[in-house]
Amino acid sequence: MIELVSEARCILCNKCVQVCPMNVFSAVKNAPPMIARKDDCQTCYMCELYCPVDALYVAPDAERSVFVSEAAVETGGLFGSYRGVGWAATQAGTNHPVDQSFRLTSA
Amino acid sequence: MPETHSSEAINPARAAFARDADVLVIGGGPAGAWAACSAAAAGAKVVLVDKGCCGTSGATASAGTGVWYVPPDHPKRLAAMESREKLGGYLQDRAWMSRVLDRTYESVNLLAEWGYPFPQDDEGQPRRTNLRGPDYMRLMRRRVRKSGVLILDHSPALELLADEDGAVAGARGIRRQEGDDWVVRAKSVVVASGGCAFLSGGLGCNVLTGDGYLMAAELGAELSGMEFSNAYAISPAFASVTKTLFYNWATFTYQDGTPIPGAASHGGRSVIARTLLTQPVYCCIDKADEKTQALMRASQPNFFVPLDRAGVDPFRQRFPVTLRLEGTVRGTGGLRLVDETCATTVPGLYAAGDAATRELVCGGFTGGGSHNAAWAMSSGFWAGAGAADYAVQAGAGSVPRLLRSAGDTALRVKNAAEFDPGQITRAVQAQVFPYTINYFRTGAGLTAALERLDRLWVDIRSAGQSSAERVVKAREAAAMLATSRWMYRSALARTESRGMHKREDHPRLDDAQRHHLVTAGLDEIQVRRRPAAEYARQEIAA
Lengths: 107, 542
Known about the structure:
Chain A has helices at residues 15-19, 46-50, 70-75, 101-105, and strands at residues 2-5, 25-28, 31-35, 56-58. Chain A is α+β, with helices and mostly antiparallel strands. Chain A has a single domain (2-88), classed as Alpha-Beta Plaits. The longest helix of chain B is centred in the C-terminal third of the chain and has 25 residues, at 370-394. The chains are: A alpha+beta (107), B alpha+beta (542).
């Protein structure tokens, strides 16, 4: 579930507040959004995908909250790693991997 | 107990946000988005409300899906239909399958025109059989907005509204981020709020709590095929990703590493369920060669993210798996449709996507994905057009002045204590999650579960109206409870095994039960049979 909103990276655009289907975030005036309803997070990664500056980190554990150190996520290159796996819409103009599903499903 | 508590007059002028529309679409997943676009294209003024956010909400947006896209060449289409009929228990309707194939072909080609980046094969031919959820639904949101549709995000509908004749006349709900309420008066309404996965934590599925079933049933709509509601998807035990394709290349093992005989994603999922009753099940995707592994990563990159982040190499290391209930999301039950415009039994009320029954194209089984995606774009397209037609025929100035509330549970009873939505949700989950009750169904097991669920329903029916902070969760809990009771009522009535509905005490398919089961009612649930579409007898025998 969602564990980190990096203050260092966040530009206060509140896109995550808008796109989270479960309404987990709350906008805060002049500050990064707050993870206000963590228990409602469904670990769908959509917030990470839409964050324009890769300031969010969703831990893989869907059923419990775990401690995540921002430094470890930063050094592990994990910020933005969901966005970077090949979604076309967020990668416009870049050389994203093309969906190869048809080769697997027709096999 | 009365079937309904007294309904209230609703005055839109007292809502924080009020709007008149020709067509109101409830739900902004693929079915709702297609419905909104096609209603707008027919000239209707459209409002779309989503509990979460149109573009990111629902099972499709966060996952991705195959699409039942078959070029219009007769033998291939026939094969496409035939290949699914046995799996679905011969409850499909060839006429509907055929028009879904036609419509899906048109719609997917439109997606290409709109700029969806379909890949090409080695011959340079476009391959349009798969859609990546985030990209698809971001594009659909853009198309909805371009059509002039007003989108209200984070605006769950709480109940439908009716006119004095009982026809649908709009809906009302709350705006979670503004902390106030909305009322939309509309000449027709499309319910596209998805299926019900009981908050089981499947990818993107926690918004899917059967809300539309409840709202429509409160206005008298019927459901069909609710016994086909026990789809379980494989996922890593710790994670949310319920994408199952790659498990076709997996070996399932006990804790000590020895393979579990008969365990498989296809044709052996029940073995996994039985093993999970007593011990953990592990998995390694060890049958994929290096080329396939690379294709997998390029196909469904989100499959690997939780595994990568947990430090698991799924091609070499074993990881624990579980089965998550996806209810009617990968099931096929839903609101009954009465004609080709996807109208329900309630005047002015239409249903599309997983909110509607998919028996017409899938019978009693889908693997999710492909057919459901085709159904969402087709039924959405037809429901939107049908709702727009209905609004035009209703004519100008026909928006009713007097609106009555159609909702009930958690909304109407004054001067009584409200129920705890979390407690009711957990109590429902305790009856629908267990494989011993819902996967391996028996008359005794279903009856015992149903007694508990019926008692819960009596409790929440007399509970007081929910406070503003809890009302969304309370209505979700009520919808899941109502859904579970329709499920088990029809599962008890089908004393055979057909499609995904497997009865341990009736393990065979019974030719005499090739019919649909229609459920209606909330306090007293009626189940009746409807004949299935005509079918060539020799194919059943085959």
